Every structure is written in structure tokens, then in C-alpha cells.
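Known limitations

Files may contain more than one protein. Parsers should not assume a single record per file. Below, a two-record file is shown to illustrate correct handling: read the sequence, read the C-alpha cell line, then continue until end of file.
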Amino acid sequence: MSQKHYNKWLILSAVVIGSIMGPIDGSIVNIAMPEFTKVFHTNITTVSWVSMTYLLVLSSMMMTFGRLGDMLGYKKLYQYGLLTFSISSAILSFSVNIYMLIIMRAFQAIGAGMLMSMTSAIITSVFPPNERGKALGINAMSISIGLAIGPTLGGFLLSNLGWQSIFYINVPIGIIGYIWAHIVVPDNKGVPEKFDPYGSISFFIFLASLLLFISEGGTWGWTSLSSIISLLTSVIFLIIFVIIENKVDFPMFDFSLLKIRSFTFGNISTLLNFMAQNTMTFLTPFLLQHLGFTTEKTGIIMTSFPLVMFIVAPLSGILADRYGAQILSTIGAVISATALFLMATLTEKSTMFTIMARLALFGVGNAIFQTPNNSAIMGSAPKNRLGVASAFLATMRNVGMVMGIAVGSAIFTNRLKAYQALKFSSNAAFMIAIKEAYITAGIFSFICAFTSLVRNNVKLIQGKD
């Protein structure tokens, strides 16, 4: 992708628009879940599929979009994503029942997948190695802004303009983003290779089945027929995917990427980091509710995590450009682990400030970890595979989210039942169970520190041709 006549910082501004849309929309929709149950006269189990469908489709399609981006060009697929996200958002605002809402969320996820799979690829292709960390840090900052303002914006829209407004607000942002990307983002030709439809389909079925098993296995029962079928389906289609990819001339995923030490260990670290992060973000609101904090105060307390990331992520990116990822990401993961272990020391008398301080420390650790880690992964990938590399990174992120929520909720629920069976008081059982879940998340972060440490130190490396 030529940088001639293009300002890389204007290109980054176009990418930031796409990066901020997904987090805002996701956090707003989570706030609106209780409203959906009332409006569509349904139950929380059915409404949960509004988020579940989005997450399943988003995660499972990411690799396909990464491959298409390498073939068609990153700008083109990014613009398709903005259009798809905007149009599906407009249709979502006209939903007449919960099933239409769920189906259209799948289409919205397709648009989000195109956006998310291309952002890191575009940034890496236009920024020189000595500025790549800074640019990825600013992009991470925009994601934190989306996560921070989403709940507040969602509450305002729901209270004043109705549930439809949480979707049609995406339309003007998407149109502006499309036009701006058309103006400032340069075209790239892509690679003249054939698309691998069978690999794409088998990977989609593999990952969708796996995520369905992880997310719903606790509800169905881990040994139930539904769980066994989804797990077996996942294993079978993973085998099929590997066989296909080793036979076709132009595979969807280039397995030679896994031979790059920094790429492989960086992605493993991403998976572990997001498992720890989403265990924390999923369980902490329940802790705050148990401690008697209001919804408004809960929102303020939870904002301390993305707010600190917003401040630290760009600084972390600048340091990554100078010192590489190995030490920074390791330090970040250790800080995150420390924060999670400190969360396990909270009591029923803990103050709002005490909790916010721990969440802020977790935000510091995540910001120090994520930007250098992302920069190292993208910097280690060949130029003609930046789309697939970006998509694989995004896939690891989303799988980590699902696994973190599933593991965290499973540990908390099972330990809570165990302590209640031992005749612990309800308060004591709750606090001990959630502490054990936090400790588990802290262990994920410590393993993440190890996988970050054993990678190669990628510093000022241009993607290889």
C-alpha cells in the first residue's frame, strides 16, 4: 500500500471511526437487554441470543474476512464493513419481534467482522515500524473510549429516545466513516489468489460449534447431548479444515505463520489476556451489586478500567516502538495478574475507591500488555498476509472473551453451589466463590506473562515480503 500523497495520521483517523463503532454498539446493546425483554415480551434466555448470535458470527467469520482483505484490498473490505454495519443497524431499529432482532444482529456482526479484521492490517501497512506501536496504541485508545462512553450513551438514548435510537445512531457514523475512508485511505491491489470456500466454511463451523459449546455448555450441562454434539462437530470440522488447508493451492489460513515465534506466542498471549479480562469484567458488576452499589455507581466504577487504558495505551505504544514487545508485554501481564489477585482480597466493607484503584491497576496492566503485543504480532507477519494476521489476532481476542465469560461464570457458579451445600452463609459463599474466580483469572494473566516472555523481541521490524 503506497503512502504517496496520503497522510498516515488521516488514514488512522478513518480506521479509528470503525474501531470505535463496535465497542460503543456492543456496550449499548448490553445495557438495553432488560428493555428488550419488556418491549418484545420475552425472557432473558431468548434475549441473550441478541449478543450470543453477534459474537458467534463475528468470531467465526473473522478469518474469512482476513483472507478476503488480502485478496481484494484492505480499504475495499473495510468500506464494505462500514456499509454492512450501517445498513443492518438501520434495519435493526425497525425490528418487530425478538427473532428479527437476533437475525439482523448476525448481519450486523458480518459488518463488524469486516471492520475489525482490517483495522490492524491497514495501520501496519501504512505506518513505518518505528511508529507502528504508537498508531496501534491510539487505535486501542479509541476502543477504550467506545467501551467507556457506551454505557452512559446507551442509558441516555434508552431513557430519552427509545430502544430504536441505539441502532440508528450507527447510521450517520457509518456513512461519515465510509466517505472519509474513501477519501483518505489508499487502495491496495491485494494478492491475485483464489478464495478457498471449503476452508472458510469448515473453519466457520469449527469455531461456531466450539464457541457454542464453551458459552452454552454450562447451561445445557457439559455432558448433555447438545454439548457433546457441538463439541464433536467442532473437533470433526477442525480436522476437515486442517486437511483442506494442507491440500489446496491457496489456503484460507497460511499455517507457515505459526512457525513465526512472535506471531504464535503473541496470539496465545492475546487469548489468555482476554480470558482474564472478560472473567473480571463479567463478574465484577455482580460483585458490585452484591456490595450494594447502585447501577449508576457501578457504571462509574467499571469505567475506571477503560479510562486508564485510554490514557496509558498510546504511551505503551510509544515505548513499544523503542523497546519492543517482549519485556513490556510481560510486565503488563504481571501487573494485570497482580490487580486480579488484589480483587480477590476485596471484602464486603471495601469502598468504591478501593475497588476503582484495583480496576485502574488492571487497566494499566492491560494497556502495557496489549499495544506492544499487537504491534509485535503484526510486525512479524509478511506484508501479503497482513489481513489474515489481523483477522487471526481479532479471532483470538473474541475467543478469549467467550472463554473468559464461560470459565469465570462456571467457576463462580459451581463454587457458590459447593459452599452453599457446605452450609456457608449466602454472603460468605458469594464472596469466596467470586474470589476464587478472580484468582483463576490472575493465573491466566501469569501464564500470559510467561508466553509473552518466551517470544522473540520484535523491535522496528518491517513486515516481510
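...continuing to the second record:
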Amino acid sequence: MGQPLEWGRRYLMVRPDHFRIDYVINPYMSTQDQPDPALTLKQWESLRQAIVDAGGQVEVLAQRADSPDMVYAMNLGLAAADGRAMLSHMRFDPRRKESLSAAEWFAGHGFRLDRIGGEGVGPHFESGDAFVFGDSLVVGYGPRTEADALKHLATGWNLRVRGLRIAHEGMYHLDLPFCPVDSTHAMVYPPAFDAASQAELSGIVPDPIVLTDEEAFAFTANSIVVGETIIMPACSPRLREVFEGLGLRVVVLDLSEFHKGGGSARCLTNPLDFPLAPITVPGGELLLPA
């Protein structure tokens, strides 16, 4: 039995006042399938309230009118409990203005800002690809985050970084096929990764909860754990039994309007309390799939 996660009690969310589909940058998006504004806000508020009800804290950042995807707050930057924040350097130009507001918010709330490659001109890094789990910062790379960004994370912050190469276009961020549940359990969808990365998963996750195709593409791994509660956009009977067996209270929310943009509960929430001390290594250490 794993121990509860040390993080996931404090989140940044972006109120979806300007959420819409203006362009297509993932397989789930279509400009012909626009979110309903009233239902979108209702679903977002249900997620915010569920976090509070579970004992979590939510900070809210206003959405830029020129950044319709900014509601997916997980990608604004990697925030640590010690007060550091690594801003994302988005791959796609339509999302890069989000970093302007993110930088202002993080700085205004006492975070010390860093950028991959200096002023964001280096390799792309999107924080939806990064999770503290076990003895490492686990980082997905390929579709959005570039492999060179992992070097900057390791050496810049003196961290042990373990990379997993994402090879499935429908799982373009790590927060879609990988979800930490406690200190030893994580939901994983192995087909999201190349063969070498699949082989590495067993060394990263002692107790994997392997998702079926149907579970994975219902955004099941795009869930969050707040204390003893797991908040999910979908949960099969099989998984409910697993999570309740781990002592978790399962809360399932309808977040379908946000699925139109390719994200769900995890994408909408940026944890502000990742603990870096347990994964700190002098000089940094980068471990990539063989």
C-alpha cells in the first residue's frame, strides 16, 4: 500500500470566460464543435468546488481573451512547493501569450521564475508533461516537450529527471496516459509510449494501474488526487473498486465540454506544491529510455 501523495493540495485554475475552439492542435479539437459557455462554466465550477470539498485550495487566474486554451492551466508552468516556477515554452504559437499572464501571476504570488533556455527561446517545454513521482521528476517528451528541455530541467534545478517518450498522437501530454495516485500507484496507458519507454515504466511505477483503451480515451488518467479523494472525468466499475480498495473516495464529474479541447480535470488544474527536495541531485541527473 502506497502512502498519500505529498502534493495536490493547492491548485491554480483559469476561469473559462473565453474558452472556445479557434484552431486545431490535437486530435480532439474541431472548430465545428464549440463548447457551450454556460455549461462550460458550470462544469468548471463543479471541479473547483470538488477540490475545495476534498480539502484543497484553489487560486483563480483570469483568462486572457486572446488565449482560448488558457483554461488548461496545467500547462502554464511547473510550480514547486519551495517557490520556484518553470514557465512553459509552448510548442504552438497560439498558446504562447498565456505565458505572459502566467509569469505575472507566479511572480505576484512569490514564485521565482525560470524559463527553459532563457526567456523561453530554447527547447519547448509544456508542464502538462511533468510530474513528481517517486524519486524523480517524470517528464513526457515527443509531441510537445522536446527531449533537450529535460536537460535544462535536470541541470537547471538539480533534479533527477526520468524521461518517457510519448509516441501516440492522442496522448500528446503525459497527463493523458499517466496519473500518480499515491506514492507507489499510478494509472498508466502503456500504448502511449514507445517500446523503450514502456519497458521503463515498471522501474518508475512500482504498482501500475494499467488502463484499457476505453478507459484511456475517456480521459480517465486526466484525473487529480486531493488528499483522500480522487476526482475523475470517468471511472469504470473496475477502477472504482481499485481506488476504493486503496482507501480513496471517488468523485466523478461531467467535464465533457473541456474534452472538446483535448483536456479534462488534470489539464484544468495546475498543482502549486510539487516537493522537489526528495528528487534533488547535485548537478542534476537525466535518465532517458535505452
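Parsers that stop after the first record will miss the second one. For reference, the second record is described as follows. The chain has a mean pLDDT of 97.
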